[in-house]
Amino acid sequence: MIHNFNAGPSILPNEVFREAADAILNFNNTGLSILELGHRTPVFTAVMDEARSLAKELMNLDDDHKVLFLHGGASTQFMQVPMNLLDLKDTASYADTGVWSSKAIKEAKLFGKIDVVCSSKERNYRFIPKDFAVPNDAKYLHITTNNTIYGSQWQSIPTTSNVLVADMSSDILSRNIDFNSFGLIYAGAQKNIGAAGVSLVVINEQILGKTKRPIPTIMDYRNHIAEGSMLNTPPVFAVYVCLLTLRWLKKLGGLSAIEKINNEKAALLYNALDSNDLFQTHVVKEDRSKMNVCFTMKNSDHEQLFQDFAKENGVIGIKGHRLSGGFRASLYNALPLSSVEYLVELMQSFSQKHG
Amino acid sequence: MIHNFNAGPSILPNEVFREAADAILNFNNTGLSILELGHRTPVFTAVMDEARSLAKELMNLDDDHKVLFLHGGASTQFMQVPMNLLDLKDTASYADTGVWSSKAIKEAKLFGKIDVVCSSKERNYRFIPKDFAVPNDAKYLHITTNNTIYGSQWQSIPTTSNVLVADMSSDILSRNIDFNSFGLIYAGAQKNIGAAGVSLVVINEQILGKTKRPIPTIMDYRNHIAEGSMLNTPPVFAVYVCLLTLRWLKKLGGLSAIEKINNEKAALLYNALDSNDLFQTHVVKEDRSKMNVCFTMKNSDHEQLFQDFAKENGVIGIKGHRLSGGFRASLYNALPLSSVEYLVELMQSFSQKHG
After folding, report:
1. Is the model's pLDDT at B148 over the cut of 90?
2. CATH class for domain B14-252?
3. What is the per-residue pLDDT for A323?
4. Which residue, among B144, B99, B355, B151, has the nearest Cα to B270 in the 3D structure?
5. B contacts of A107 (beta carbons < 8 Å)
6. Out of 2.40.30.10, 3.90.1150.10, 3.30.565.10, 3.30.200.20, which CATH number does the structure's domain B3-9+253-354 have?
7. Chain B CB contacts of A13 below 8 Å
8. DSSP 8-state code for residue B164
């Protein structure tokens, strides 16, 4: 039995693996593999339509908010967002809460004036800034709702009169928030939505079409909306894995149900860390991520020992990101509570031995 | 038994389907699905490395030519190529041999001056232009080696002192040509390389770094070369399907072996069309595509009849593209000769009945 705490690509529900494997051998009793299916055949357009409509339903989106499944990962969105929303003379505001935020900032600078309205960089990204102002004329405010590398998360979404844009790659669909308050949301699928190779993008179409820059066809969100995410050959199989994962999430009870489970998993692990003398966390309590729990050992000699102990006992993916070191346990939607209970038991046995 | 003549996504070898399904349940005896595998784990970096090196070996590329697996499909390359190779004041030459060429031309116009040096558009793209000159100062000449919609193909690659760029989406790896004579080659994977959701790009790195335009990080080929196609999370599963298909192709004997089979398949079908009074083809003989065989019925009343007859008998994917009408049988690498023999027999029975 393996307990997979990978930061992404990461664990998905077992039934998704089974159904995905079946579809590769014989998709929906067509006698064809999903890999050899034309993307404009009714059997696949039904997959795309259901995936988009399930995402809309789960996020409770209004009709202005369009759901897209696009090629390219969130790193492409770092460029595509300002290309669509910002003219060179315009200003956009960005909150810098981690490496991914700062990558988004770097790309946006090619397309307009970027105003970093707040940053936690000087304190090694250990908190989420609360006290900042966004200029009225900023075309949008960009936030990264969860910071995978440092383990911090916006527990409440800032209220702003500006268009709100969010990179939700590592916490989308993990909790019930007002998704309609965002102008644009993007997320690589490979954590909570499905497999690597596709991104979910949600856009309030009212915010589009306001810039003068000529936009390449494949980068213009309006074209993808008009074509229902079928402007070019979509990443067929990756979209299907998203559909299977969204179905699983709906069956489980949707975002309120998964939020309750995610809260329970995070509380269990943080409590174990707080009450164990060998381990320590660094993010301020109120900003702790419920998706990525980052920690170190007080005695750095223990780190390799605990790493080995975890591995011997079937726990994988808990090594921290190279930029932050230590450990990171990712508790994405598909990770069962039992895996967190198991990790907590390992921490306790380790501390009885080495404490 | 289904005979899959889909134009793409299209048929792949049966063993690729079996191995891909296995990897989703348990990848290489890791006890993990390939969908939950971290992309920086040694088991996956080995996949990426082998896929890149097999592509290099099969295409007999020299060390200046780098192989990349990128997100985004060929439609993204329409933009990415001129973004990397062309300054606004520069000129690039394009050959217009079909809808995909003209889409590439449209996107390139955002990045520089585009000189359409030849076009077969006025004759409905029924031939490949031979008599054209490329200005010495053109930064590159862009061709589309195979025209999926109209069924024409460059049977010999133009010799030019300019950098040669090719969209090979629908005939890459189908024949032995001098791939080192190209500065840049791109191809969506969903025909001859693997599944939808990834593109193969081959670049002579000597042609890069010569423009002044600031290039977004994710669009700059140099970054992808430096990071070995792991600049961001790659489309993990789609890359693995490419690897499986490349292994199959190598085992079969590589490009010379597949070219022989492809020649045989195409000859069989074109001979049947040429010798049957009910059917007709439109592309001039010397420019006929060996990948996509397009044809119509002399009596248009026969078209729906033949479509239904083929379908009843397990032949799928032969409906022509909506722009060209009629029929299109795609004979990609993985389509067995026996499927072509079967289609030819159906044509003969049909013509005995209706001729």
Report:
1. yes
2. alpha beta
3. 84
4. B151
5. 216-218
6. 3.90.1150.10
7. none
8. E
